[in-house]
Write a structure and sequence with these properties.
Elements (H helix, E strand, L loop, with lengths): L2 E6 L7 H14 L3 E5 L2 H6 L3 E3 L2 H4 L21 H12 L5 E6 L1 H14 L2 E6 L15 H22 L1 E7 L6 H10 L3 E3 L7 H13 L5 E6 L5 H9 L5 E6 L11 H19 L5 E6 L2 E6 L2 H4 L5 H12 L2
Parallel strand pairs: 1-2, 1-4, 4-5, 5-10, 6-8, 6-9, 7-8
Antiparallel strand pairs: 2-3, 10-11
Length: 321
């Protein structure tokens, strides 16, 4: 394979730049020409494709976000627009594509492969950790540490005012961020979309904590559970303590990527180039039990969902009491 393209798609995640850098440098080491695609599929469709040289990737490893930029592209669902994007790639002789993003980004890559013959490889770049086929995604660890820093600050004021604070964290339909933050941050309650979350049980737990002399509560709420203001209103009806809610929002996406995310991104990107160098494609790269693995790219939406979040929830539930 002589020419490849690299793009980032969907929500940005810390560590994407480390993946871009590693993929580009490994590809160049193997004698490939590397192109970058700005703004994901949106840019591919609008021909924002450029030769990526050493100057572009220099100094980006410790930067959050994505140097290639990212954007939504609803038009890409239409085959006629995918054909335009494919022609933009073929005109430059591009044969392989590294797509850094979530399962939606993988679906776009899969369609390009099936319809136009490109060799595609997906890297899991999302803070949500919601991709099947990998234990961890690029950006998850950095986001988790951002949440932990916020929890530490919120605990100070929660204790001073003897409050219950509901902290909404990202994750889309997955509770991984909330569960890991509860465990690592010493959370006092947890609501995730994978399980029933009866407000009565949370209220009982908070009252029991007060009965044993605890002065505050930090409750982690995954955004997929529902509107946090509705949850706050329902909880206020059942407890005597003052209840406040905090939505951490997009601050969770940014920041310097952690060392763990940089190493993960680099390992996965190196494997992606190895696959393309062997003239293979149609796969996603992941990390399972510490080992870099490959799956068919469709495994990201057809495979067996991770169950460890339920086991971790049970542990967090016990420790939060």
């Amino acid at each position: 394979m002589k020419r490849i393209a690299i793009l980032t798609s969907g929500g940005d995640a810390p560590g994407m730049n480390a993946a871009i850098r590693a993929a580009a440098k490994m590809a160049q080491y193997k004698g490939m020409e590397v192109y970058g695609v700005r703004r994901g599929y949106h840019g591919m469709l609008r021909d924002e494709i450029f030769p990526m040289d050493g100057r572009f990737i220099s100094g980006i490893i410790d930067r959050g976000g994505t140097a290639l930029l990212t954007a939504r592209c609803p038009e890409f669902k239409d085959p006629k627009f995918r054909a335009i994007a494919a022609e933009n790639l073929k005109r430059r002789g591009i044969e392989g594509i590294v797509v850094i993003g979530g399962d939606g980004s993988y679906r776009g890559a899969d369609l390009l492969s099936k319809e136009h013959g490109f060799k595609v490889v997906g890297l899991p770049g999302t803070i949500d950790n919601d991709i099947i086929g990998t234990d961890f995604t690029i950006g998850f660890d950095t986001c988790l540490n951002t949440i932990l820093d916020a929890i530490s600050k919120l605990r100070d004021t929660a204790t001073s005012h003897e409050r219950t604070i509901l902290v909404e964290v990202m994750g889309r339909r997955a509770g991984d961020l909330a569960v890991h933050a509860c465990l690592a941050g010493g959370g006092d309650g947890l609501l995730i979309p994978e399980l029933e979350n009866p407000i009565e049980m949370l209220a009982y737990q908070i009252q029991e904590r007060r009965n044993t002399g605890r002065l505050h509560d930090i409750v982690l709420v995954a955004e997929g559970v529902g509107n946090i203001l509705d949850i706050e209103a329902e909880l206020k009806k059942r407890v005597s303590t003052e209840v406040r809610s905090v939505v951490l929002g997009h601050v969770q996406r940014g920041g310097t990527p952690s060392g763990r995310d940089r190493v993960l991104a680099t390992r996965l990107a190196a494997k992606a180039i190895e696959v393309l160098a062997n003239d293979e494609g149609g796969v996603m790269i992941g990390i399972e039990d510490g080992q870099v693995v490959t799956h068919e790219i469709s495994y990201a939406w057809e495979g067996t969902k991770k169950q460890d979040v339920i086991e971790l929830y049970r542990m967090a539930d016990i420790l939060s009491r």
